[in-house]
Amino acid sequence: MNDPIWLRPERTGHGPAPEYSRERIAAAGIALADASGLAAVSMRKVAGALGAGTASLYRYVATRDELVDLMVDAVTGELAYPKPVSGDWLADALSIGRDLRGLYRRHPWMVEIHPGATGIGPNGVAYLEQGLAALSALDRPAQAKLEAVAMLSGVVSLFARDELSTRSSTTADGRAATARYLAAVVTPERYPHLAAMFGSAAGPGPGADELFERVISALLGGLLNA
Amino acid sequence: MNDPIWLRPERTGHGPAPEYSRERIAAAGIALADASGLAAVSMRKVAGALGAGTASLYRYVATRDELVDLMVDAVTGELAYPKPVSGDWLADALSIGRDLRGLYRRHPWMVEIHPGATGIGPNGVAYLEQGLAALSALDRPAQAKLEAVAMLSGVVSLFARDELSTRSSTTADGRAATARYLAAVVTPERYPHLAAMFGSAAGPGPGADELFERVISALLGGLLNA
DNA sequence: CCCGACTGGGTACGGTGTTCGCAAAGGAGG
DNA sequence: CCTCCTTTGCGAACACCGTACCCAGTCGGG
């Protein structure tokens, strides 16, 4: 029922000038999240980082979720869309995918965002427009193109999640525990294929970057049946 | 450092017989989550549903996250793997995808689970084994097959998320707010492709089921370059 | 000029995960 | 059988969380 934050003016003109701003608050939250994850972004911590009282944040933001919306849209702005489009739709889509992957690398807490449950902001709109622009030459229904952009974004987030869970030190404990469990329970009799996998050397593989491009190409091909 | 719950025996033999069990606790959590989402699964509520004291749960589970691990593995058990494999690897993989999609429909809170951050349990192992079994006929490195299973699972979760966010009533408010924002800000001059999309009728499309199959086929094809 | 809307923020409420300490229970060894 | 000693259940407490309320102080528009 209530309007989203993007429709509420930041300032009405009346009263004393605000001491902070949505932008500064979002930046403080992003700094916290970059350093310690999304769970570390609490109203008290953000307010503390700004030297403000906790309750003051609610003059700028109706709820913590809105703060997160602000943060998400702020980092989405790093993509600096719109950008020119080459005309090769697959190349342009891959470029968007690479951009987004870089974003996830810079802000790992973004994998903790549930897309769809979060409100879209101006930079999110620009992102969607860029995605549709990349696919504009294709003769497909607009809805299918939007689905393709959503799928592209989702698959990039899957890659980011995977990359993160294999590298991050915060999940190292859990990985070690899981590895110990697997070692204890995976026997060739009960789980032949898994056991064979542990036996085979963990070769370097085709390189994550090439895999990334190949998966996205295949995905978009399937979605837009080019 | 600490062993995962799956390596800790539920009972040592000493002392009085436990009044509850991991299974019952997980079932209580699942009931709560099915009805009201993962956020409703709190130690106090689960304990209350069982008629137990809150602190008692910690005799069965080291942490709330472990309770969630229990819940995830319990619902994974609904898949009842292993199942026979037909020999047509794509058909078998699609079958697994459909099974998983059904699981998400029965337990929508599963989309709130961050895969990889959660510890895998016995039924999760069985799931992976089933996935590898489906791909066993393919002459590809075991690592690539595991990646394919992970991607398959991830894409299914994306579909589930999408299906949920367009249907669920709990997100209706946010959707309405976003729709109002888009209506206010998307003009043909600034966002031509998005504006065109709103202009075009929202035709029924090719059907979500057919899309699902097509995307997964394309994805696995790209991953396993068949 | 001054009224009224706005800002900052201390305090408080109800919720959360988790720890501690203790009373009671009951299997294991003598 | 009897005693120990581990284990169980759990009330109380701690530290944190998001958020609502209220009030004092500060400006801008009529």
TrEMBL record, chains A, B:
Gene3D superfamilies: Homeodomain-like, Tetracycline Repressor, domain 2. It holds the Pfam family TetR_C_1. Residues 19-79 form the HTH tetR-type domain. The keyword Flavoprotein does not apply. Residues 42-61 bind DNA. Keywords: DNA-binding, Transcription, Transcription regulation. It comes from the Bacteria. The keyword Transcription applies. PANTHER family: HTH-TYPE TRANSCRIPTIONAL REGULATOR RUTR (PTHR30055), TRANSCRIPTIONAL REGULATORY PROTEIN (PTHR30055:SF151). This is TetR/AcrR family transcriptional regulator C-terminal domain-containing protein. The lineage of its organism: Bacteria, Bacillati, Actinomycetota, Actinomycetes, Cryptosporangiales.
